[in-house]
Design brief:
The protein is an alpha/beta fold and about 300 residues long. It is built from eleven helices and six strands. The protein folds into two domains: about 80 residues, no CATH class; about 200 residues, no CATH class.
Length: about 300
């Protein structure tokens, strides 16, 4: 992923095609600035690591009408996490139309720091779990037959949020997708509730199962998951490398004080990743189209 390959106008255009805003029926004064514009500014702010004031200054070269600083900050605070989760899944659906032979789903969680107290980029492993000023995000990624990785769904929470609950929340956005495959995860996600949801979606669990020497695995679902994990668990490193790439390009620390905004920014990094994949696909199609047109000409 290259930050220079994504421009503000590209983000705005793509979100405009993905999200179709409906006229609000709520009482009160209608919004002057669309949700698509606010979300585009927010994603560009994350992409470039800008402050609220800086992103509005840069956006003034692209848009003739922009909100005031206080208005923009208020709209970001009111921005729904569900909207970001929805965008992640809608971009995946756009990409998925052009791919087949899905093989492996992979799940894992990671952390992002915020505020200026504990920058997580200097810490690793269990130390991150003991730092209060960070947010957790659980990601459901899919491995496509050509080796490309696409994020399907995600959910974010506070520093000590249950990753199982975050995964269950993320799966709500893909419950209507029945495309098969196997889901790989570590022992952190060893939950019969998660496994039952996966089976209902047509996905087989390959989650590492917690077990002891004295007590074996009794639940048939957990036995199935344990058997499949022996075959597919080696693919789990792919999501770890995805996190590493994202944090290298976009950073692992957000310069904000509010935990809720930090949770949205964590989801925003995933939206940007999927947008980059979508842009790459559009560029590839355009190159092939003009190459074929030139050969026939």
């Amino acid at each position: 992923m290259r930050r220079t390959k994504i421009a503000l106008k590209d983000i705005y255009k793509l979100l405009g095609t993905i999200l179709k805003e409906k006229r609000s029926r709520k009482r009160g004064r209608p919004k002057v600035y669309s949700e698509i514009l606010i979300l585009s500014l927010f994603l560009y702010q994350i992409l470039k690591g800008l402050s609220y004031r800086e992103v509005l200054e840069e956006a003034s070269w692209v848009f003739s009408s922009l909100p005031f600083l206080s208005t923009y900050h208020y709209r970001i605070k009111r921005l729904s996490k569900k909207l970001l989760q929805k965008v992640i899944f809608l971009i995946f659906k756009r990409i998925f139309k052009n791919y087949s032979n899905l093989r492996v789903w992979i799940v894992d969680g990671t952390g992002y720091s915020y505020n200026d107290i504990y920058p997580i980029k200097f810490f690793r492993g269990m130390v991150v779990r003991n730092i209060k000023s960070h947010v957790r995000v659980v990601v459901v990624m899919i491995l496509i037959s050509d080796g490309r990785r696409v994020i399907v769904a995600a959910s974010s929470g506070g520093p000590y949020a249950s990753e199982v609950k975050l995964l269950v929340d993320a799966l709500k956005f893909i419950k209507k997708v029945n495309i098969g495959g196997v889901l790989v995860a570590d022992k952190c996600y060893d939950s019969t509730e998660v496994m039952e949801r996966l089976i209902d979606m047509g996905i087989k669990p390959a989650i590492k199962v917690k077990q002891t020497f004295r007590r074996g695995i009794r639940n048939p679902l957990r036995r199935l998951s344990d058997e499949l994990s022996k075959k597919y668990y080696r693919n789990r490193y792919l999501i770890e490398s995805l996190f590493g790439s994202l944090k290298q390009k976009l950073g692992s620390h957000f310069r904000v004080r509010d935990e809720g905004i930090a949770e949205k920014m964590a989801l925003g990094t995933l939206v940007l990743y999927n947008l980059h994949i979508l842009l790459f696909f559009f560029w590839t199609i355009s190159i092939i189209y003009f190459a074929l047109k030139g050969s026939h000409g």
